[in-house]
Amino acid sequence: MVSPLTSWKEQNYYDLLEVSPQASDEEIRIAYKKLRAVYSPNSPGICALFSPQEREEILIKVEEAYRVLSDPLRRREYDLMLKGEGGQEVIPRPTSAVPYRHLGPEEVKEALGNEEITFSGGSLHRIREYLSLDLDEMARETKIGKNRLKAIEEEDIEALPAPVYLKGFLKTYAKFLGLDPYRVVSEYLEGITQKGYQRG
User: What is the pLDDT of residue 88?
Assistant: First the structure.
């Protein structure tokens, strides 16, 4: 089980499911079912360790981990990403830089002109500008290329990388601005999927 003392948000999919990178499909399936039961609202004792929101966020990440690791193609892409092999684009390690600042919901609303908060390329662009950050500074601090950041903000479907890499870039971008990385990833991907982006 994920320890509350461990930042589960930083764990890779294998660590989260508590399996080795060499785990078989059956081992992954069993681990997934076990964690689904552990983080069920009916699981005794779990409420003392995690809030309902944290439990839901963990389950979302567990589902995501299972979807990737149970699909041979996605799992291979993910393994290459972790190892940085095969000439594949590599997601930068989480930046050691301190987030520019942590934005509360009211500040995010202010940055978006008091509109309903939905994270898209446009809203990320507006929040970045609200914090007086330019793309050069973002690229330098996050280790994400300037052109990649621009493609994210402009939702340039043709220039965006495969989903497994895009998620990593979005998480790094969000963390640097002090935003919820999992909400940013979820809402951004939902938006661009409606515009024709293929998750694979």
Answer: 44
